[in-house]
Write a structure and sequence with these properties.
Length: about 200
């Protein structure tokens, strides 16, 4: 293996998906070509101020105060303002609510409840899939749950809606991304949960 940075080595081992999520990589895997990743005091390469953290949200899983695995939980974002382009507003507002399947007075919702993805500040990079149609009632409910998430750091637990899982990516703690939360994309959440059913 050619000489690589520790960031490159970890990405080669973790293989994050297109949304920046990876499996928990156990520290026991830092052998052979990945020996440089062995953690010293505090895990220098996987700290929140390291080069890996400039791109990804990092979760360091610990047992008895020691890091036992490292995982990536989506791409890092910074707070910005995100206006909705008129072309998208027109398309999304004509669709039925993604939660209640009603078609009157549909609101255009940013799937990202924190509204902090810097890509969306550039109208040329905004995509239709960044938004979803929600009725006023559903959008108000989402707004309340997102507010609670911002206040507590706890993501919405879809088990409260009698789903078998709380999130389909990540876990119950907010770690820089809304992907995997029910409210981020109810249609996608439903598809993921019911994928094994005919």
């Amino acid at each position: 293996m050619a000489k690589q940075t520790k960031k490159d080595l970890f990405l080669d081992l973790a293989r994050p998906d297109d949304e920046g999520f990876s499996r928990p990589v156990n520290v026991d895997e830092f052998v052979g070509d990945y020996e440089p990743l062995r953690l010293g005091n505090g895990g220098s390469w996987c700290r929140d101020d390291g080069s890996l953290a400039q791109t990804f949200n990092i979760r360091r899983n610990k047992q008895k105060g020691r890091i036992v695995s490292v995982e990536l939980q989506g791409f890092k974002k910074t707070p910005i303002r995100k206006p909705i382009p008129l072309r998208i507003k027109s398309l999304v507002s004509s669709q039925r609510c993604a939660v209640l399947w009603v078609g009157n007075a549909t609101e255009v919702d940013h799937k990202d409840g924190r509204r902090d993805d810097p890509r969306l500040a550039d109208p040329s990079q905004v995509e239709l899939d960044d938004f979803q149609p929600l009725s006023k009632a559903a959008n108000n409910a989402k707004r309340q749950h997102c507010k609670e998430c911002r206040t507590t750091g706890n993501r919405f637990d879809a088990k409260q809606l009698v789903y078998s899982v709380g999130q389909v990516k990540g876990n119950g703690k907010y770690n820089g991304t809304c992907v995997g939360c029910y409210w981020n994309d109810p249609a996608r959440f439903n598809a993921a949960v019911s994928a094994n059913y005919q």
